[in-house]
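Exercise 7b. C-alpha cells:
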C-alpha cells in the first residue's frame, strides 16, 4: 500500500480528470447534450443518425406496449409469455438503438468531457436485455430458480450483458477506452496497493453498513431480504462465492465505476459524480425487492437502499482517488465475501453489494 498515496489526485492521463472545464460545465445540461444541440424530441431533421434514432423510439414504444398487454393478460399462459418476451426484445433493441443514436449525436456535436451515451440509457438497455435472456433461460426449467446455480447464472448473464453493452456503445464508439475506465495492466506494487486499500475500506464499509442497517431495522421493524440463498452443500457455497465475490464485483465495477462514474466525472464535479453513481448502484439493487404487502416492501426497500449507500460511495471515492478499477473490485469482492461468510456462519441469506 506504499506505491501510491491514497490522498494523491489521480493522474490526468489515462486516469480521470479531476473536474470538467468551465466551458464544459456551462455548456452541459446535466447529463444531456449541450444547449447548442437541443432538438425537439421526435424530430429527425438534423440528427446524426436519424434512422437509428427513429428505430430506437419505435422499438421502445412497441416493446412497452407488448409488455403492458402481457401483464394485463388474465391467466397468463404461453401467449402472455410470448408477448412478454417479444416486449423485452423490442425494448432491448430499442434502448440499444437509442443509446447508439445518442452517442453518435453527442460525438457529432462535439460534446465536451464525455461524448457518449448516458449511463442511464445504457443501464436501461442492459436491464431489458438481461431480463430477456433470463426469461428465455428460465423457460427451459434447467435448474431451481431459487438455488445457488440460478444465482450464478443470473449474475453471469447480467455481467456479460453489462460489459458487452459498454464495449459496444461506449468503447466501440470511441467515447471512452478501457484504460480511461481504470482497466489497465497494473504493476505488482500498484496492484498490491489497490488490493490493500480495497481491503481496508471494505472493513470500514462493513461496519458502517451494519450500523445503518441495524438502526433502520429497529426503526422500520422489518429485515432486509437476502439475495444469496442459504447454501445446502459445498457446491452451493462455491457457486455463491463465484457469483458474489468474483463475477458480481468485476461486472458491476466495470459498469458503475469504470463506465458510469468516469463518464459523470468528466461532466461534473467528482463529488457529485461519485454520489450519483452510488445512488444508481443502490437503486438497481432494490428493483426486485418485494414483501407481504406494499408497506413491507417499501420498508424493506428503504433499508436495503440506505444500507448500500456507504459501500457504494466508498467504491466510487476509492476508484476516483486511485484511478484504478482494481481497487474498487478489491473493495467490492472483500465486502461481499465477508458478508457472505458472516451470513453463512449465522445460517441466513445475505444481501450483497
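Sequence design result:
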Amino acid at each position: 500500500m506504499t506505491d501510491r498515496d491514497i490522498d494523491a489526485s489521480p493522474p490526468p492521463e489515462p486516469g480521470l480528470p479531476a473536474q470538467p472545464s468551465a466551458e464544459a460545465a456551462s455548456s452541459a445540461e446535466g447529463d444531456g447534450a449541450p444547449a447548442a444541440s437541443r432538438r425537439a424530441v421526435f424530430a429527425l431533421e438534423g440528427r446524426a443518425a436519424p434512422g437509428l434514432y427513429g428505430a430506437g423510439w419505435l422499438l421502445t414504444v412497441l416493446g412497452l406496449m407488448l409488455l403492458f398487454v402481457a401483464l394485463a393478460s388474465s391467466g397468463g399462459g404461453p401467449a402472455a409469455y410470448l408477448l412478454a418476451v417479444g416486449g423485452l426484445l423490442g425494448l432491448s433493441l430499442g434502448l440499444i438503438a437509442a443509446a447508439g443514436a445518442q452517442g453518435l449525436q453527442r460525438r457529432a456535436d462535439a460534446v465536451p468531457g464525455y461524448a457518449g451515451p448516458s449511463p442511464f440509457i445504457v443501464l436501461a438497455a442492459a436491464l431489458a436485455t438481461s431480463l430477456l435472456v433470463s426469461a428465455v433461460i428460465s423457460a427451459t426449467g434447467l435448474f431451481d430458480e431459487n438455488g445457488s446455480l440460478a444465482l450464478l447464472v443470473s449474475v453471469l448473464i447480467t455481467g456479460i450483458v453489462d460489459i458487452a453493452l459498454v464495449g459496444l456503445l461506449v468503447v466501440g464508439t470511441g467515447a471512452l477506452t478501457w484504460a480511461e475506465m481504470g482497466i489497465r495492466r497494473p504493476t505488482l506494487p500498484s496492484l498490491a496497493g489497490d488490493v490493500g486499500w480495497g481491503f481496508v475500506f471494505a472493513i470500514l464499509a462493513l461496519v458502517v453498513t451494519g450500523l445503518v442497517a441495524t438502526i433502520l431495522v429497529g426503526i422500520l421493524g422489518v429485515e432486509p431480504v437476502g439475495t444469496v440463498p442459504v447454501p445446502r452443500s459445498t457446491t452451493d457455497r462455491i457457486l455463491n462465492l463465484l457469483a458474489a465475490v468474483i463475477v458480481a464485483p468485476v461486472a458491476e465495477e466495470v459498469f458503475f465505476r469504470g463506465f458510469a462514474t468516469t463518464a459523470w466525472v468528466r461532466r461534473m464535479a467528482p463529488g457529485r459524480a461519485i454520489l450519483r453513481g452510488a445512488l444508481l448502484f443502490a437503486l438497481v439493487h432494490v428493483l426486485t425487492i418485494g414483501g407481504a404487502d406494499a408497506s413491507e416492501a417499501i420498508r424493506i426497500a428503504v433499508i436495503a437502499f440506505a444500507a448500500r449507500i456507504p459501500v457504494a460511495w466508498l467504491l466510487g471515492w476509492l476508484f476516483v482517488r486511485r484511478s484504478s478499477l482494481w481497487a474498487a473490485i478489491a473493495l467490492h469482492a472483500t465486502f461481499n465475501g465477508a458478508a457472505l461468510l458472516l451470513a453463512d456462519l449465522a445460517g441466513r441469506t445475505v444481501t450483497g453489494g
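Instructor comment: The chain has a mean pLDDT of 86. The first helix runs from residue 22 to 27.
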